[in-house]
Amino acid sequence: MTAYKKFGKPLLDRLCASFALSILSPVLLAVALLVKISLGSPVIFRQSRPGLNEKLFPLFKFRSMTDGKDAAGNLLSDSSRLTPMGDWLRRTSLDELPELINVLRGEMSLVGPRPLLERYLPYFSAEERERFNVRPGITGLAQVNGRNCLSWNARFRNDLEYVKSMSFSGDVRILCQTVLCVCRREGYQSDPNATMLDLDRERDMCRGRRQ
């Protein structure tokens, strides 16, 4: 596993990402045009996320929400800003395609724990921080075992299981399962906040109840 983690996996990631970008370039261009027409510029959404060893990197995704704000100038909720086309992009996972650039740059892997928000960093336990021992992935064990329907604790259990048992055969299996999940649209929720809290809010509430 160590040899695969250090040498084989990064090499395969870059080769597969390069191949996928070349094959999918017409799809990328088509989606970029749809986003441009529907939402305007920028087409690509960039956000700082913690990756390997908690090092921050710019995550790339196709934009799926407007910049709608309330009277006070605050951004509206995600569900209010998500457009029908944006919902379709998320439902089909096409919004994730630009992350292949992150894989090519060595910031992400095809398979690994999903990169979460930077503001969540203070809320991970010491054990949960082991998820940062590997590069974050476009898909992962949690994504094929429930995706947005999982609780935070369940997601992290899947992430840690992946870190401990990472292998070439395991990655191939997760990639194949991902294709099936996307085709069946399993575990997708247009607004995950409708069924679960953000990690920081959930854990602040738990701490408040314990005090």
Task: Explain what this protein looks like in three dimensions.
It is built from 9 helices and 4 strands. The strands form 2 sheets. Strands 1-2 form a two-stranded antiparallel sheet. It has a two-stranded parallel ribbon with strand order 3-4. The model has no long low-confidence stretch (mean pLDDT 90). It starts with a helix and ends with a helix. It has 211 residues and is mainly alpha-helical. The longest helix is centred in the first third of the chain and has 22 residues, at 2-23. The radius of gyration is 17 Å and the shape is globular. The protein has one domain (2-210). It is 48% helix and 9% strand. The protein has helices at residues 2-23, 25-39, 78-81, 84-91, 99-104, 141-144, 152-165, 168-184, 199-210, and strands at residues 44-50, 56-62, 109-111, 137-139.
Short description:
The protein has 211 residues and is mostly helical.
Descriptive keywords:
globular; two-stranded antiparallel sheet; 211 residues
Average of per-residue pLDDT values: 90
Low-confidence stretches: none
Strand content: 5-15%
Class per helix and strand makeup? mainly alpha
* Element-by-element helix/strand order: HHEEHHHEEHHHH
The strand line-up of the biggest sheet is 1-2
